[in-house]
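Dear colleague,

Thank you for sharing your sequence with our group. We've completed the structure prediction you requested, and as agreed, I am returning the results in plain text so they can be pasted directly into your records. Please verify that the sequence below matches your submission; if there's any discrepancy, let me know and we will rerun it promptly.
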Amino acid sequence: MNAIVALAGRSPNPWPRKRSGSAPRSRSPLFCAISLFAVLFFLVFFYSSYARAPTSRLLRGSPEAPRPSRCEPRVRALGQRFLSYAPHSGFSNQLSEFRNAIVAAAILNRTLVVPPVLDHHAVALGSCPKFRVLSGREMRLAVWESAVELLRTGRYVSMADIIDISSLVSSSMIRTIDFRVFASIWCGVNIDLACNSGTAGESPLFASLKQCGSFLSGFNGNVDECLYSVDEDCRSTVWTYQNGNDGELDSFQPDEQLKRKKKITYVRRRRDVYKALGPGSQADSAALLAFGSLFTSAYKGSQLYFDIHEAPKDQRIQSIIEKIEFLPFVPQILSAGKEFALTTIKAPFLCAQLRLLDGQFKNHWKITFLTLKEKIESLRQNGPLPIHIFVMTDLPEGNWSRTYLGDLAGDVDNFKLHFLQEEDELVIRTAKELAVGGHGLRVGLVASSFARMDKLKKQCSPHKLADVLLYIEEVICSCASLGFVGTAGSTIAESIELMRKHDVCSS
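Please find the predicted structure tokens below.
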């Protein structure tokens, strides 16, 4: 396999030269000077405006970008077929999409491009039940822009830096490639130069990455043997596998009132992902199969987009589905959570995960606190005092007054509250350990002659520490021997329940 190709200096496309023809008429010196000044002013203004343009406008506005007829030789030389997707929203949603992507890549026999962990809601899908979502191309482009920005600012953290997939890769259950290595190969850039460079987005290197992102997002259309963009989204498609219902209408459709109000014509069908995108399909010959969002959830008796939860006719895929039901955090995060439970709390405790400020949850304080109060009253009647409670909440401590949390904090005879903060030594130490660990670049495909891997690991380790507070808090809650009270409907609460089910704290 080829080494990653270094970025060659690229000069902008020259302005069209004046074609030869009849000799120009003579002009007065003053007229020529004014004309020359006007042309120079226009060029300077246009160039400065172009350089300051936001990434999305530059990418969408590059119709003259070359459209290859097939993939670059360095891509074909890998002998791999890849699958990418566009994660979005909060971490729990991104993790859910990651699991779905693993299943899709395994079914389609493709190498999964492992993305970064995006900032909370840096990219949002929209509301699928209301049929108001971003298209696959828009999602892919937004994620690419966010990934490049994380690289540029030194805050890049791979999903594989947080979630331990080493056993899946080492057992050959799946094949993966880190997004940074993938971008290096496909875009022909030295990605280690991009990591933590702090250079402006209009530098030649980032201009090349932006142009590459536009191509891989599908804005120039599909390219035979190279790129196939999956533009079917949750408005029209529910992906299935071996269910025998390929092409059938899904049970959830837009109602007539919504159709009239929003002028919606979508019809949702259940499609077998293997039949649509596997062998014999147009997509199968492409080196890269690019999905948009892969997020799904149950709604009105159906899944919004991805309904592959078992594969009884395919034991290999069934084993992968069972394996990824729970994907653990990497050892550094697990150790930090257990350490806090054992050495700071040092007693049996209850975990209260209270999501109070974000989205729909800000309107449900009453029921959230009522559930917690009922659990605590039960513990008061049956256990010793004080009751130790680990509080995991997005409500700042300064705003606890006149809430049930404030009441608990003030009753020091009956309750002892514990919580973790970003500036705590344990959190900072764990973030440093993750930066050194570099798990994302230790698993998956790299070019055999990729001699710069050590340099890449050094250059692309985050210089700005990752935000690991949420992950450590989830592990702490998995260790709560007196029980767990989570916010109804919160994906964070669902993740914690899954960790408790798999007894992470005792492993």
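Summary note from our side: The longest helix spans residues 29-52.

Kind regards,
the structure core
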